[in-house]
Structures are given as C-alpha cells and as structure tokens.
Amino acid sequence: MFTGLSAFPLTPFADDDVDESAFVHLVERLVTAEVDSITALGSTGSYAYLDRSERRRVARLAVRTAGRTPVLVGIGATRTRHVLELADDAQAAGAAGLLLAPVSYQQPTADDVYRLFETVDDHVSVPLVLYDNPGTTHFSFTDDLYRSIAALTNLASIKIPGVPGGHVASAARVQQLRSILPADVAIGVSGDQHAAAGLSAGCDLWYSVLGGTLPQLARSLVEAAEEGADAGRAASTRLQPLWDLFAEHGSLRVTAAIAEHLGLARSSCLPLPLQGLAADARARVTSVVELLELRD
Length: 296
Prior knowledge:
Blueprint: E1 4-7, E2 13-14, E3 17-18, H1 20-32, E4 37-40, H2 52-66, E5 71-74, H3 80-93, E6 97-100, H4 110-123, E7 128-131, H5 134-137, H6 143-150, E8 155-160, H7 166-180, E9 186-189, H8 195-200, E10 205-208, H9 210-213, H10 215-227, H11 229-238, H12 240-249, H13 251-261, H14 279-292
Parallel strand pairs: 1-4, 1-10, 4-5, 5-6, 6-7, 7-8, 8-9, 9-10
Antiparallel strand pairs: 2-3
C-alpha cells in the first residue's frame, strides 16, 4: 500500500452537494489504471469543506468502488474529537489507512501536534499517514517532531513536501530522513512537480494530485522515475507547462478545470465558496491539456 502511486481524486460537487456519480467514475478510472492505492478526502478531495456526513458518504463510496485497491481516507479536522469521529467513520467504511494533517485555526505548537497524533494513534487500528502540507496547514514539521511521531505504533508513512533542486537535493533529504525514521516508515513525496525527483531519489511512493484525475499519465511518470533520475527528469520536464499552471493557480483549481474539460466533472465542481478558474486561466488549461495530450 505504501509504494508506487497513491492517487488523490477530486470530490466533485454539483448543486452544492457531492456529485456521487462523478466521484465513483473517478475512482473506477483509478482502479482500471491499477494505481497502488487511492487516497480519498485529501486536499485534492476538499476534505476541509465537507461535513461529517458528506465525508462518511465519500469514504463509503471510495471503499465500495475501489474493490481490492486499498483506500486511505483523510481525517483532518480542527478538533481532536472530530478527528476521532472521522477516524471511526473511515474505519467503519473499510479504509485501509488514515491520512492526518494538523488542521488548525489558531497556530498549533509542536506539542499540540504531537498530542493529536498520539491520541489518534491510541484510538485507531489501521495504519496512519502523517500529512505534512505546510502550504495549506501553515504548520511546518521539524525532523525532531517527525522522529517522535514516527515512533507511534500505527504510524506507517510520512507524506513530505517536494524538495526543490532536483535529484541531488531530493536524495540528500531522503537520506537525512532515513537516518531518523524507523525502517518500516515509508516516505512519500508530494508536490507533483517534485515527484520524479523524489521517486528517483528513493522515496517509496508518490502521493499524487495528478494521479487522481489522470492516473495513466501519473503511472508513466512513476515508471520513468524508476528507470533513473534522467528518465524521470525528462518525463517531468515534458509536463512543465502543467506544473507552471499548478504554481500559478494551485493544483486543486487546475485539476478541477482539467476534470471539467474532460467531462469527468460538471462545471463549477468545487465546493463553495471555492470558485473555479476565470475564463482566461481556464483557456490556458485547455490549451495545455491539448498541447500535452493530457488524456487517459
């Protein structure tokens, strides 16, 4: 479960409610593409905008549709009690693992975050993934905090931000993490533009935005990175126009625009108050989709 490609599908909306048929179709595409795991209700899945009942529905749909493909479910919330409730719902739905980010309104301390993971670890019976996403949570993990949380019983993987600087910088970072983490804790790279460098540098898996909507394309990038740094760099460089859009507009809005363009989601598929891209940016996305032939 913690190797290869973990695909993060959108949670499409229609008429201010989860578009269940569109979500099921996205998950079916991931199963057909034989991704290694599916992560529902990650940041790409807009988990923070869904209430408990919506998240329960999405978790059940994901597990039921995925069949034998393992499903991780995001359980981040601002209160520990709510995180535990979401963990219960996800486990009852059959989740193979749980993804936890330290969501907050007030800035948390390192002790706040450790106590959250400790409490959740004591409560759950499936593997737990530490979700380090400082661009969204505005909390940055230190290596000391990584080490402390990684010692918890159920901690199975750490989802790290991508490392700028290519293969050499990524390899140094992975080596540094290997020196402080237990051998059985998988290192997963995120930040799609850094995925190839991270994988070729020794990360165990890629937690992928792109993979949730274009899984075959994401798999090809994984395979290139497995061939070596040069092949991975070439495959990623070909997608630079897409990475540029991600950097300018955010991966969620760009991915939603791609899904809408390809007929995988209805227009305005993000949960309000999130708005889709403006017309000029959407036209650029369409141009990049056609230029790079971004179709599975």
